[in-house]
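SEVERITY: medium
COMPONENT: batch folding queue
REPORTER: lab tech (J.R.)

DESCRIPTION
The queue accepted two submissions in a row. Attaching both inputs and their returned structure tokens so the on-call engineer can compare them side by side.

ATTACHMENT 1
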Amino acid sequence: MTVEPARSAPSLSVPAPRATAEPPAAAVLAAHPAPPGGRAAWLAWSIGVSVYVLAVIHRTSLGVAGLDAAARFGIGASALSTFSILQVLVYAAMQVPVGLLVDRFGPRRVLLLGALLLSAGQLAFAFSSSFAPALASRAVLGCGDAMTFISVLRIAARWFPAAKNPFVAQLTGLAGMGGNLVTTVVLAQALHSEGWTPTFTAIALLGVAVFALVALFLREAPAAVRPVRPVDPPPARPKVRRQVLDCWREPGTRLGLWVHFTTQFPGNAFGLLWGMPYLVEAQGMSRSEAGGLLTLLVLSNMSFGFLFGRLLSRSARARMPIVLTVITTTGLGWALVLAWPGGHPPTWLLVGIILVMGSNGPASLVGLDYARTRNPAERLGTASGIVNMGGFIGTMITLFGIGVLLDALSPAGAEAYSATAFRWAFCWQYVPLAVGTLMILRLRRRTVALES
């Protein structure tokens, strides 16, 4: 008869000792152990990054097909730039929605949807014979592209320890440049030998294999980082508007956006669209010679990605020096190229500016590191999406400005784009470069703590 009192009395007294005996930090660590890293982490990252590599192949395909597209659709520089502008515009506009999707539904589902959209958009582009359908297909492609990079970063954050995330982010960008290398070497040659429709159809069908790889083998997170006991009551999800506002109010997010904006766009605009026309039409190179320099841009990007990843994994103090050095050398390098008499700089100088622009993409990833270290895990996808808009907004502004100026300076049309026209059109780069640098310097004062 004494059993019931003995059972009921402890049930009233147990919660209090447990609540006071366990510190909050220990409770958090028990519920969310640190990511383990190791071979399983690299396998998960490799599967996720395969979608990003595919996205970069699709994204940069127009960079080696710009002249072919102008001839196929009968368009000038402004209309040609519209392809890349719309693609980049959709990409940038989708960053915050994609970040929210990743936070709520997980990166695996978002990657699967991205692979489907990439393949559908590129397949439609392969069979387009007029401007409007081709433009719509690039918009679909941009939507799929937007779903890849943030998802891979979220997978990395779940699988790798926090100290390793800057290096893994740079490796992600480096892997993406492998896709760019495929574009400049393989795709450019295939366009010349196989033609428009077979080439773009082939890269569209790559998405089927990548989709199957993700669907069958990708695990979003290791079992070790899943909560070991349920939380009661479960935390309520913040509303979308509240989550976005909380990310934006964080100074590190805004600084990250402007770092991404200012560092990424010169190399991005050159590689996505205007590099091949500039080298062929303004500098008189053959397509193979221009393709070689674009390949050099990719290799330089990969080298800087590895270097910056090592520096950032050792010390966060390297962030701002890297950013300001890249901005300064890019601005000075283009000033020397554009000021060269006659608008025909020597080959060694063109090689030099292309090597410098190789640092642009890796430096832009520093912006994502600012956001990652200043936002909690539950809104990391949203914060990364906000930051990742920056460089593509800058790219869009640059693509459009250069296209409009080229048409304005060459009334005779695409057949008469001169070295002088390209020189003045490329001066447009200094507008977003100046705006972005001023915003970085302004926000840096508010986020001095980030450098420690």
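ATTACHMENT 2
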Amino acid sequence: MTSQSAWDVFQQTCPSRTSLARIANRWTAMIVIALDAGPLRFGELRTGVAGISAKVLTETLRDLERDGLLHRTAYAQVPPRVEYELTALGRSLHEPMRALQRWAQQHIPEVLEARDAYDATR
């Protein structure tokens, strides 16, 4: 097994690169933040993460489950009930995602101002 110090996200073949791409995905960040409150059903996630399509939510949830960041529990009942919750690994990602959320919300006035200034010169 390769030692952890050998992982280099800047190397094209490094598996950490795919993890970084998954984590950097805007939907991943919002799902991880939304699931901090506890398990949620698909519809609750879709409502809470406004703007995400059912297809993209399904794909993102599958990817997060595959990467060990969330656990999917299907209950044998009618109608079917499925809940998603963060694993310990997923919970370890929550605080960095919250920090990004706080940064984005705190600095949006500056970002919007910079965009306006940039667009005015183009």
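NOTES FROM REPORTER
The chain has one domain: 6-120.
No errors were logged for either attachment.
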